[in-house]
Design a protein that fits this description.
Number of strands of chain B: 19
Mean pLDDT of chain B: 94
CATH architecture of the largest domain in chain A: 2-Layer Sandwich
CATH class of the largest domain in chain B: Alpha Beta
CATH architecture of the largest domain in chain B: 2-Layer Sandwich
Number of domains of chain B: 4
Oligomer: heterodimer
Helix content of chain A: 25-40%
Number of helices of chain B: 18
Largest sheet of chain B: 8 strands, antiparallel
CATH topology of the largest domain in chain A: Uridine Diphospho-n-acetylenolpyruvylglucosamine Reductase, domain 3
Number of domains of chain A: 3
Strand content of chain B: 15-25%
Helix content of chain B: 25-40%
CATH topology of the largest domain in chain B: Uridine Diphospho-n-acetylenolpyruvylglucosamine Reductase, domain 3
Shape of chain A: globular
Mean pLDDT of chain A: 95
Structural class of chain B: alpha+beta
Radius of gyration of chain B: 24 Å
Distance between the termini of chain B: 60 Å
Distance between the termini of chain A: 29 Å
Largest sheet of chain A: 5 strands, antiparallel
Strand order of the largest sheet of chain A: 4-5-9-7-8
């Protein structure tokens, strides 16, 4: 296999043009931490963006950072941290879940996957923080999308399409992202022993309160582990995070405790314990590849938050799934025992998820299992057809990450 | 009209009676308006220097009717201009002589309020403010608050990706919309997203939002709602220079405070506003800053002191802190009335809408002052200081020959300056017809071609809202052609492993 290590943005354009001329698809890779997500790309050539790793500019006062697509997320996060800022959507580190080397991953990969962490309930996802990009389309042309300011409605918002497109529309070479100040302080309230549906109601109550809850998660007893094992004293634990200035956090913790009194007595986790707990949740370490559930297949299910508790309980019952709830129930990570009839299992699970108006993506599974089904949730025909037209409008010859999101030839 | 619109299709105009009859068979009764007098109110939107009677107005009230109207237009090659409340400041819903004006004003129902999922499902003709009012009993509101929120429709907000004074903290429309039902020009009805926090596949909702009516017609929208903050207070601080006020804004953000709103007015804007509403604004300052904090009382009380301390360090010469809701609203009264206030001191004005990197504000204002002298026209500036969104108000008299053209040229120069300073042509009003011909100042031909290819994925015939956003709409077949750059490839030089 050819691995093309680009030196600059011009190399990316040249590589795509050559691929286009030869009708030879390219697999777009940063650190390759998420290569096992999605379908295996039909390609003999890898376009390695890791050398494009410069931080182009960082202007804390403007709340923006511009970096090359291959810039390591860890480096950029450390830079932001030095000015007490961060990506507010808490990008997930998939290393534990997928069993890749820790601390790796690029900004390009972060945007292309768009896996937001617990603060999505308050701050939105990667798509909400990508302000501008320079990218090479499947036409072999470098184009600019968006701008380098936080407020911009000039032309179509192509950045939204790039975020979460898994490299299937264009090769990003540079991205401008919105950053925000880190909270001064945080407290997490922990409720113990709630079943999934009751926990769902507790999270709904908290998120529907004026107390600006920035994380709402529930870990049933069966999925407990690591940093969280001690918190629930061996029983299920429901976590509600409050962030802000110290006085405000303390005040809101008190009022939220009172509001949730009917769900039991909450314990308060201090800032350090809270941070560790939310990092564990963000990275889905419950189902870590090297942990007790490392052999299970893992689904990422997104649904209306208030439907989460009942849906998760159903999946646990019907599929022997272990589940972890984030986003107040709007995100369910479900780990299922691997079965030989992957397609049948997927169809059953998806029917249940669709009944709850959600969608399900298979995030961790063997290559064979991923080849047997659509990894990304199948869309209604009209929407799927429009998505195909969008794909073609960026990449007419399907040169870029061919087959990553939708199996070629299938639907 | 200095802005050239697509040449009307005489064949279509010649078939007008037949088209009106066909539309009447789809939308019965008063839903089709074809008399010149009754079409009068639809001749323009809030960019009212531009007027054009449409060929016919149709006001459907069901998705099925919208689908049939669009399908009919698609089959017959008839252009369609969608319209919400007609409050666009960029001419987004300016009619075309040979186009059907598709008004969505009958889609007035809120379909579902779902407090548990913190969403509202609404029809597009509902006003922005009506959504907040409908959920107020549960303590909720809809965060984006464009200043036209009493009148503007949520469907129009989707088209324009509308902002407001609170978008630094709460985001624009795009950050607060979860899904929609959209009708394509073919009459195909699609559901995108829903109550789930994100949709699967490509973020179609993201590209539909802010597409200015060029991609489809939205017939239902799901928006996020938020709990109202417990309290809000504001600081009103005057500064002897724009630089000092700008420094204050930068330091507030640098210390980690994201205010709910942060507005700046220059001296002319402050004077006009004060003369209009008597908000008690100081008249001897070069820049006036309103900083609003919201949240729990204990938090707001502390942050307001921090903001006041920063403003003092930055040399504020006057300062008031709101101690009651009435006082807070009074601080805002002048700012919110800034446009009509300027309207009182000048026969006419146009409101520009560029964004610059916040730190370049003093430079931007210096350039605007120089342009003001060059064009011999006054200019007052209001500024969403938190997110760098500048609204210069150019004062002119349309009855003076040549003044409007001069005002427009002045405005275009301001927007070009915004782009040169690292900013963009429009922060929240949209491109429409107003900034259409400036698009090449910000985007290359290649950038624009890629945007137009996305347009082709939705509307290959270019029938929806032509003449808006893009100076020239290229044919989709031409845009889709792949040019193979053989023979000039640097590819062989790239290291291979």
């Amino acid at each position: 296999m050819d691995i093309l290590k680009v030196r600059d943005a011009n190399d990316v354009e040249q590589a795509v043009r050559a691929a286009l001329a030869d009708e030879q698809p390219l697999e777009i890779v940063g650190h390759g931490t998420k290569r096992a997500v999605g379908h295996t790309v039909a390609s003999n050539a890898v376009l390695d963006l890791a050398p494009l790793n410069a931080i182009v500019s960082y202007e804390p006062g403007e709340l923006i950072v511009t970096v090359e697509a291959g810039a390591p997320l860890a480096d950029v996060a450390a830079l932001l941290e030095s000015k007490n800022q961060e990506f507010a959507f808490e990008p997930m580190d998939t290393a534990a879940l997928l069993g890749t080397a820790p601390g790796r991953g690029t900004i390009g990969g972060m945007i292309a996957a768009g896996f937001a962490g617990p603060r999505r309930v308050k701050a939105g996802g990667a798509r909400d923080h990508l302000l501008g990009a320079l990218a090479v389309s499947g036409f072999g042309d470098t184009f600019k999308a968006g701008g380098k300011v936080v407020k911009n409605v000039t032309g179509y918002d192509l950045c939204k399409l790039l975020a979460g497109s898994w490299g299937t529309l264009a090769v990003m070479v540079e991205a401008t992202l919105k950053v925000l100040p880190k909270a001064e302080d945080e407290i997490t309230l922990a409720l113990g022993g709630l079943d999934d549906e009751v926990a769902g109601r507790a999270m709904t109550t908290a998120l529907g309160s004026p107390f600006d809850v920035s994380g709402a998660a529930h870990v049933p007893k069966a999925a407990l582990g690591g940093e969280l094992a001690a918190l629930g004293h061996g029983d299920a634990v429901t976590l509600l995070r409050l962030e802000g200035i110290t006085a405000s956090v303390a005040h809101r913790a008190g009022t939220l405790e009172a509001l949730l009194a009917s769900f039991g007595r909450a314990t308060r986790l201090d800032a350090d314990t809270s941070r560790a707990a939310w990092a564990w949740l963000r990275d889905v370490r419950a189902f870590a590849a090297d942990g007790p559930h490392g052999a299970r297949v893992v689904w990422r299910i997104v649904c209306p938050p208030a439907a989460g508790g009942a849906l998760g309980a159903l999946l646990a019952h019907e599929h022997e799934a272990l589940v972890v709830y984030d986003w107040g129930g709007g995100l369910i990570w479900a780990a299922l025992p691997e079965r030989s009839d992957t397609a049948e299992q997927a169809a059953e699970l998806r029917a249940q998820v669709e009944a709850a108006h959600g969608h399900a993506m298979l995030v961790r599974a063997s290559e064979a299992a991923r080849a047997a089904i659509e990894v990304f949730h199948p869309q209604a025909e009209g929407v799927a057809a429009l998505s195909r037209r969008i794909k073609t409008s960026f990449d007419p010859k399907h040169i870029l990450n061919r087959g990553r999101m939708a199996r070629e030839g299938a639907s | 009209m200095p802005i050239e619109m697509p040449v009307p299709d005489q064949t279509v105009l010649g078939r007008r009676d037949e088209i009106v009859a066909a539309l009447r068979s789809i939308v019965p009764g008063e839903g089709v308006i074809s008399s010149a007098t009754e079409m009068k109110p639809y001749e323009s939107d809030a960019l009212n220097a531009y007027r054009q009677p449409p060929m016919v107005v149709v006001l459907p009230d069901t998705t099925e009717q919208v689908a049939k109207v669009l399908r009919y237009c698609y089959d017959n090659g008839i252009k369609v201009v969608p319209r919400g409340s007609g409050t666009s400041l960029s001419g987004g819903s300016l009619p075309l002589a040979d186009a059907v004006l598709l008004g969505m004003s009958k889609f007035k129902r809120i379909r579902e309020i779902d407090f548990d999922n913190r969403v509202v499902v609404t029809e597009p003709g509902v006003t922005n403010l009506a959504i907040s009012q409908a959920v107020a009993h549960g303590g909720f509101y809809y965060a984006p608050d464009p200043s036209s929120q009493i009148a503007c429709s949520i469907g129009g907000n989707i088209a324009e990706n509308s902002g407001g004074v609170h978008c630094l903290k709460y985001g624009m429309t795009t950050n607060n919309v979860l899904g929609c039902e959209i009708v394509l020009i073919t009459g195909e009805v699609l559901r995108i997203g829903g109550k789930a926090p994100e949709c699967s596949g490509y973020d179609l909702m993201g590209v539909i939002t802010g597409s200015e009516g060029l991609l489809g017609v939205v017939t239902e929208i799901t928006v996020r709602i938020l709990q109202k903050p417990e309290t809000a207070r504001a600081v009103l601080a005057g500064f002897p220079s724009v630089e000092a006020a700008g420094e204050c804004v930068a330091r507030i953000i640098a210390t980690g405070i994201i205010p709910a709103g942060m507005e700046m007015m220059d001296r002319p804007a402050t004077a006009a506003a004060e003369a209009f509403v008597n908000a008690g604004y100081p008249l001897d300052v070069e820049a006036l800053l309103i900083v609003e904090l919201d949240g729990p009382k204990v938090e707001v009380d502390e942050l307001i002191l921090r903001v006041d301390a920063i403003a003092r360090e930055c040399g504020q010469t006057t300062c008031r802190i709101s101690n009651s809701e009435d006082e807070r609203l009074l601080f805002w009264a002048g700012r919110k009335a800034a446009f009509p206030a300027v309207g009182r001191i000048s026969p006419d004005y146009i409101c520009m809408d560029g964004t610059i990197p916040r730190g370049r504000l003093p430079e931007a204002l210096t350039r605007i002052r120089a342009l003001s002298e060059k064009y011999g026209l006054r200019c007052a500036n209001v500024f969403h200081a938190g997110d760098g969104n500048l609204h210069p108000l150019i004062l002119f008299d349309a009855n003076e020959p040549g003044e409007m053209e001069r005002a427009e040229a002045f405005g275009a120069d301001i927007l070009r300056a915004c782009v040169e300073l690292g900013g963009v042509l429009t922060g929240e009003h949209g491109v429409g017809i107003e900034k259409r011909d400036l698009m090449p100042d910000m985007f290359s031909d290649i950038d624009i071609a890629q945007q137009q290819r996305v347009k082709c994925a939705f509307d290959a015939g270019g029938l929806l809202n032509p003449g808006k956003v893009f100076p020239v709409l290229h044919r989709c077949a031409e845009l889709g052609r792949v040019h193979v750059h053989r023979g000039q490839l640097a590819f062989p030089d790239i290291p291979r492993f």
